[in-house]
Amino acid sequence: MDRAARWHDGGMATRIITTLVDDLDGTDIPRGLGETIRFGIDGRNFEIDLADENAESLRGALGPFMAAGRRVNAAKGRARR
Questions:
Q1: Which domain holds residue 29?
Q2: Domain-located, residue 40
Q3: Which of 21, 30, 37, 43 sits a CA distance of 20 to 30 A from 54?
Q4: How far is 23 from 5, CA to CA, in rounded Å?
Q5: What is the pLDDT of residues 21-79, one digit of tens each?
Q6: What pLDDT is attached to residue 76?
């Protein structure tokens, strides 16, 4: 029996299924695919669930900025100018 299934008094099982949805286009992301990406800008942190194709697009769009920027430790980040 699936560990997510729960038995009720009547002998019936209930299974709760959580579906990851792409936050950009609203499509369901198949189990085992997609990812949650965390990023920050202007002192604010964000998290977004994306299908593999949209995750690749985000990384491609941010790539030149990441290459030109400096990595900082989140705990020791520089103050905004």
A1: 21-67
A2: yes
A3: 43
A4: 27
A5: 999 999 999 999 999 999 999 999 999 999 999 999 999 999 999 999 999 886 654 55
A6: 56
CATH number at residue 32: 3.30.60.230
Closest CA to 35 of 17, 55, 18: 55
| Domain count of the fold of the chain | 1
Residue 2 lies in a domain: no
Whether 36 is covered by a domain: the verdict is yes
Helices (H), 1-81: 52-68
Measured in whole angstroms, the distance separating CA 34 from the mean position of its chain's CA atoms is: 8
Cα(21)–Cα(31) distance, integer angstroms: 10
